[in-house]
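Tokenised fold entry reproduced for everyone:
>
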Amino acid sequence: MFELLTGTGVLLPNGVGMLRFGMDRDATLEALAGLGDVRADHAPDAARTYTVWWGDLELTVHANTVDGSEPSDLVLEGVVLKRTGHPGRPVPNRAKVRQGAFRREWDGPAVVPVVLDGIDLFGYPAAEVLEALGEDRYPGLLLQSAPPGGYLPAVTVQAEPPPGAGVLISADTPEPDITDYEDMWTTRRNAWQLEPTGSGYQVVMKGDQPMDLLICHDTLYELIIARMLAAGVDIVTE
């Protein structure tokens, strides 16, 4: 069982330990290694991501540098738990999933519980989970949209939401700076795809192990999606 502790981190199963927000790279890797082999990747919104699989779940942590620190001094900022539907194995090629060769991961409850405030987020239909959590949720918690009647595909929890997260832009509010993301719809747009969620789009980096873009600033995320749509970035449907 994984237990989400909002504002603090994630308690790992089988007494492995805890991923605590703000912990350094070495401590993060040591905790992840207790679950299995760790894969490292670069991400556009974080200096580094590290991924490990446990049962039918994929756990990815995002680490970044603190302002003024050396590039090698990474600290843990966010954790993503995503359902793979394949206990002990990486996510299969998504094209095969769309062709019906694999059972969709959100068709039923997950094998491994992911618990927040006593609620198994992947153990019940998404509508029931959202009702149980209520509307007054920690702003650093992101629940990926599920199809009607489906179960949650993924959950993200961050140390602290970026300034302005969840706040809509008004006439007096400046738009967030999107300069650091421009290559996603210009020079590197072929590395990305958009996946409809039923309530918008999910931004996903292509590859054998596709990575969802982790951004809790709603307005910034919407601006990025709008630029990608205008640039003709691939939209992938099932």
Observations:
- Confidence is low (pLDDT under 50) at residues 86-103, 162-173.
- The two ends are 30 Å apart (CA to CA).
- Helices lie at 25-33, 94-98, 126-133, 218-230.
- The chain is about 15% helix and 30% strand.
